[in-house]
Specification:
Blueprint: H1 2-5, E1 9-14, E2 26-30, E3 33-39, E4 45-49, E5 63-65, E6 68-70, E7 77-79, E8 84-86, E9 107-110, E10 113-117, E11 141-147, H2 151-155, H3 186-197, E12 202-208, E13 211-219, E14 225-233, E15 237-240, E16 251-260, E17 263-271, H4 279-289, H5 319-324, H6 333-343, H7 360-379, E18 397-401, H8 407-410, H9 412-415
Antiparallel strand pairs: 1-10, 2-3, 3-4, 5-6, 6-7, 7-8, 9-10, 11-17, 12-13, 13-14, 14-15, 14-18, 15-16, 16-17
Length: 425
Amino acid sequence: MGELLRQYWMPAALSVELPDIDGTPLRVRLLGENLVAFRASSGKIGLAAEACPHRGASLFFGRNEEEGLRCVYHGWKFNLEGRCTDMPNEAPSCPLKHKVRLRTYPCRERNGVIWTYMGPREEPPPLPDLEWNLQSHNIPFMWRNYRACNWVQAMEGDIDSSHINFLHRPLDLSDLSTVPGVPLPGYAARGIRLIQEGGVPRLEVRDSEAGVLHTSARRMDDGREYHRVHPFLFPFHTMVGGGTSEAEVSFNGKLWVPMDDEQSLILEWQFRPDRPWSDAERTALLAARIPHGFLEPSSSAAGAWRPRACADNGYLIDRSLQKTRLFCGILSNPLQDAAMQESMGPIVDRSQEHLGPADNVIIRVRRRLIDAARALRDQGVAPPGVDRPNLYNVRPVGMVLSGAMDWAEATRARREAGRHATGDG
């Protein structure tokens, strides 16, 4: 699966994490590798192995200067491509300078995200045409979400529609604007009410060119069905949105990025195509997602994104709140999800699972990932979406449909509503 992941671009950092030219390097862990990211003198981003190839000292402590990173142990300096440009503790004639290379990965910065390609191609594939990543005038609300568990294990929570009726359920549906820790606009409150009052959903899934398309349909009193139609896109993109009106367009998604087998750092985005988020709105959104805040930042990888509510303190579960307001008793959806996903252990023992019809989306996504990994390994087949960036320019939607309608066709126009957006490089 690791070779599959390396075929795709992945988010290494947010632009705000590397604000300054020649500024402090940032520790990054991706696919089991310890790396450092830095913004060079030109403003370009470098991403390199943390260990200096001389004696293995950490380049996190290095000097970021004059378009390169210099190890403070013996002064060896490396440029953005990993070539050694200075070896001051050796004679000028020493041939080692031209032989030693620091492992580096190409990066591209777009719309607030620093992407890296860790794959085998000399010329990387194009960046995916995610709608929010094409509009430089409208940077979405973004943050990173740390999980102490395997990335697939965590990601499966986002494609599991039936858990919403339980884990995220408010006990009082009469006034959803006052749900603790979750300030909701009117259209979002209506969507939650449709979910909770619609009972057990009918779940359907279909393969798509870049992954899987799935719906959770809940029957309404008038015989129609409320559909929440969401894409899974290779290798780790999920999207969620439930507004029933074309005028109520705000949706979010996540990129479930593996730091290693037992840690994940998720890029979560919230996008509103018609207008940017204000600073006040961004502050309110983050407070709602992580109501208890984060631990004191550290220099470790993901050191700024570890939530205060975690396994060590029971995610600050409020048993009184559990009896009166929230089915789970933990504030905010991300923390509720984290509690369940991390409680399975770093890597869940899937041989002990008992999957049912409500898990058909999870089953299908697992199968698609496994099949793609085998096709790459055995036949060299490029995985879905790698060379077709336009397949990522889609939206999740919520729609009320008659029971006789084909949900995939009925929602197609709205799911592809963002296709007019164009990239800027």
